[in-house]
Design goal:
Layout (H helix, E strand, L loop, with lengths): L12 E7 L19 E2 L3 E2 L1 H11 L3 E6 L4 H10 L10 E6 L13 H6 L2 H7 L3 E6 L3 E2 L3 H11 L3 E9 L7 E5 L5 E6 L13 E12 H12 L8 H12 L2 E5 L15 E2 L4 H10 L27 E3 L1 E2 L2 E2 L1 E3 L2 E2 L4 E3 L2 E3 L2 E2 L4 E2 L4 E7 L4 E2 L4 E7 L4 E2 L4 E2 L3 H7 L1 E2 L5 E3 L1 H5 L4
Parallel strand pairs: 1-4, 1-6, 4-5, 8-12, 14-19, 17-20, 18-21, 19-22, 20-23, 21-23, 22-24, 23-25, 24-26, 25-27, 25-29
Antiparallel strand pairs: 2-3, 6-11, 7-13, 8-11, 9-10, 9-11, 15-16, 28-29
């Protein structure tokens, strides 16, 4: 039957965000919160990008499956995403594992995280399901992916990045024909298949899937009855459809959202301390690769009611100043100097302190004369007076979590162990 286009497909779709992952490569940043709840960009959390994409694409039914250390994430969702109204055919469901269809408490895999909530999904009667990962930074119009899904007659459409072929070894890689139909799906291959006509590049899965809802429910029920399944989209559901049905690749470049200032399609997995630091610090560039100032595609989040940032003192060596930096509301830069740094809400930086390449999470107190270079400071940390980080690699590695690229992650527990 030909699809009627009298309204956007997104109006008949549900976005289902898989947000249960720990993100262990972020080390202590995910000791108290799931990776999707980690702060990003001065105001937002990582999950806000997938959710904002859904909202800006016109999707008005959203579900978020949570699992690992979910309190911080759930609290953020309740505070920042509570504006959906049932009388407007809108819904926003937070879905922790709750033994709805299983005697085991936890979601066993990404597919099981959807399967356990089949009754809720079917209740809404949506035509399409957009399955999303909740832990990547990007801007994308899912309506364009939905349109390709319908036009191609696919049973599943998979969002894909074009990456240099030998950089795709850590991804699930799509082997496609000339029409982008997937003929094989290879998980983390040593020798990734190239793209027809562009053999130096490969198509890597973004963890974004579009299904007709009825077909997805059939696949999930079939998978749930398979005792050998690991209940995972990438390992079980997708390979089965590739082998037995029609799976089509959707290239991110076809639906990525770019302002006039963004030259390339931007997508980042900020899953390591180095990648997280770099993506945040990149925002301090004169023209960043990611434009968070684009009001036509806003990144929605919990907007706290806070006073403006404040800069005080104007004496030699004691001047509140910030160069090439982002400073959020309720920050007080009291006689300290920032260079190429990003400060979240409520940071206090005291006199004679100097920060360079610093990503400072909310409510941090930086003591006088602290010298901090190339650091990520966790929420609520109290930096002692005179602390120096970024000058002595060996000392830094003994006291803090120092990455291979020389970025130091600082938590309060590490500070408490210092002998100053």
């Amino acid at each position: 039957m030909e699809q009627k286009r009298n309204q956007p497909l997104a109006r008949d779709a549900m976005a289902y965000v898989l947000a249960g992952g720990r993100g262990s490569r972020l080390k202590e940043l995910t000791d108290r919160r799931a990776k999707p709840a980690v702060y990003f960009g001065g105001k937002a959390r990582i999950i806000d990008f997938a959710l904002s994409n859904a909202l800006n694409s016109g999707i008005r039914r959203i579900g978020v499956a949570t699992q690992y250390k979910a309190h911080s994430l759930i609290r953020h969702l309740q505070r920042g995403w509570n504006f959906f109204r049932p009388e407007r055919n809108e819904s926003f469901d937070i879905l922790p594992a709750s033994q709805r269809v299983s005697e085991t408490q936890w979601y066993e895999g990404t597919a099981d995280a959807v399967y356990q909530n089949i009754d809720i999904i079917e209740d809404y009667g949506v035509e399409y399901m957009v399955i999303l990962a909740g832990d990547h930074i990007y801007k994308m119009d899912y309506e364009l992916m939905l349109q390709q899904h319908v036009d191609s007659g696919a049973e599943v459409t998979i969002g894909c990045l074009e990456v240099p072929r030998m950089e795709a070894t850590g991804f699930g890689v799509m082997h496609v024909d000339e029409k982008d139909q997937i003929i094989d799906f290879v998980e983390k291959p040593a020798d990734p298949p190239g793209i027809p006509g562009n053999p130096d590049f490969a198509l890597a899965s973004m963890g974004i899937y579009v299904f007709h809802t009825k077909f997805l429910m059939e696949m999930l029920r079939r998978d749930a009855e398979d005792p050998n399944s690991s209940r995972d989209f990438g390992k079980d559901i997708i390979p089965y459809i590739v082998k037995n049905g029609k799976a089509v690749a959707h290239r991110f470049t076809a639906s990525c959202v770019r302002s006039d200032f963004e030259r390339e399609a931007y997508w980042r997995d900020v899953g390591t301390v180095d990648a997280y630091w770099q993506a945040n610090i990149d925002l301090t560039d004169i023209t960043p690769e990611l434009d968070i100032y684009d009001s036509s595609w806003p990144i929605w989040t919990f907007a706290e009611i806070k006073p403006p940032a404040k800069f005080v003192h104007d004496d030699e060596n004691r001047r509140g100043s910030a160069i090439s930096s982002l400073v959020s509301g309720d920050c007080i830069i009291s006689g300290s100097t920032l260079h190429r740094s990003l400060l979240f809400t409520g940071v206090r930086a005291n006199s004679y302190a100097r920060l360079e390449g610093a990503v400072v999470l909310p409510d941090v107190l930086i003591g006088r004369r602290a010298q901090l270079r190339n650091v990520v400071i966790d929420r609520g940390v109290v930096i002692p007076e005179g602390l120096v980080v970024g000058e002595d690699p060996e000392l830094d590695a003994k006291r803090f979590r120092r990455s291979g690229n020389g970025i130091c992650l600082i938590t309060q527990a590490m500070i408490d162990k210092l002998e100053l």
